[in-house]
Amino acid sequence: MEPETRKKLLAEGTAIALGLAISLAPAPEGLGQSAMWVTGLLAWAIVNWMTNAVPDFVCIFVMCSAWTLLGIVPFNEAFASFSGTTVWLLIAAMGISVAVSKSGLLARVALKVMSIAPPTFRGQTLALMGSGLVIGPFIPSTIVKVSIVGAMATDIGEKLGYAHRSKGMAGLWSAMYLGYNQLSQAFLSASFFAYIIIGLLPAEVSAQFTWTYWLMASLPWLLICAAAGYALLQFHYRPEHAPKITREEIRAMADDLGPMNRDEKWTLAVLLTCVLFWVLERTLAVPAAITAIGGLCVLLALGVVKVPDFNQRISWNVICFMGGAINLAHAITVTGIDAWLGATFGGPMSALISEPVLFVLAVGLAALLARFIIVDMTTCYALFIVVLTPFCLEAGMSPWIAAMCAYCVVYPYFTKYQNVNFLAAFNSAGGDEKLDHRKLVPFCLTFHLLSILALAASVPYWEWLGLIP
Hints:
Radius of gyration: 23 Å
Helix content: over 70%
Shape: globular
Number of strands: 0
Order of helices and strands: HHHHHHHHHHHHHHHHHHHHHHHHHH
Number of helices: 26
Structural class: mainly alpha
Distance between the termini: 57 Å
Largest sheet: none
């Protein structure tokens, strides 16, 4: 038997044993046996998510089906989210990202921004970070963005004269990753993850967080992390020698792409229109999902996104996972688990939430540490949201606060296995040949600590907004 197969069988045996032990254990006072089955199934799924013994979306399908078979949640409720706005918003957003990836528009805009900046380490790190902030809200897939621009970062590094695996090369890559990935949490449309969070939050909370309000609530965190993150880049990676490239050479890289083609023009028009409608969602009374679906339909009708692209290049496993995960909160409510948690742990949690700065620091650090164990990024922040939402609501705090505390630390790359986005960006940039992972870790550490401190610094502002009582 292959070692990998043996490892997976051991993990699955552990998952099943733990799940059955919890499911068949006598329910504590205040809970029924159905709650134990929901908890046992969740424990089984968590072990699988930690070990990758069974794909995450398969675990979700098993959980939802088991709820129905056990009579806990009817089928039309267990799978209700597949007809909801979040799943369709995800499908449309992923389809639009396919158009961006295929057309070459992202590379063109990024090179244009870099050609304007001074051809120095300071200038190019600012351009890479800044272009990510400018382009990010138009493209909901972070993995698409970092895969394309990651290669450009090391290309620019080579033209600046930085050796492979050098500090300068690591600094340019880190600036790219900061702008296109680690600051994406500030914009609702910059990552699929934000749409997933909207689906996980209670309806009355998600209705409040339009594109504009999300950005407004995230603004202190964004400003602090962008300014201090840029300073950290200069501290960690400032190279020893001056660059060997001119602004004209960078412009030549952009000119080599030639004039904009038809697909780029249509993709740009659709992106601009979608973002405009998302910003004016409340004013125009057009739901974000309808805007995204409309944009995808235009791209499909024009042939920018073709049927094979729709079938093969959209992450259907992610959509399946989130379609079921969103209903986990419903199962927890139906079985009274949320009420029991509130009654059992309400005192200590209320004491922690009553000190918002301490609460934010605790959740941020806990979520960051959890990423060493929970390999899947979505699973990690989804669990924090599901567990913490009842306590936040009880205390009068918006669950969005807890969601952001987990979401803003979801992208660490202390080890390569932690982050699929990192792997995409790292490998597209040349992998170990051009980048030294050990040189990337210091910025990863200092930025994530900065991110948690920036969340804590946002507490007075969130109190002013009424998100914290």
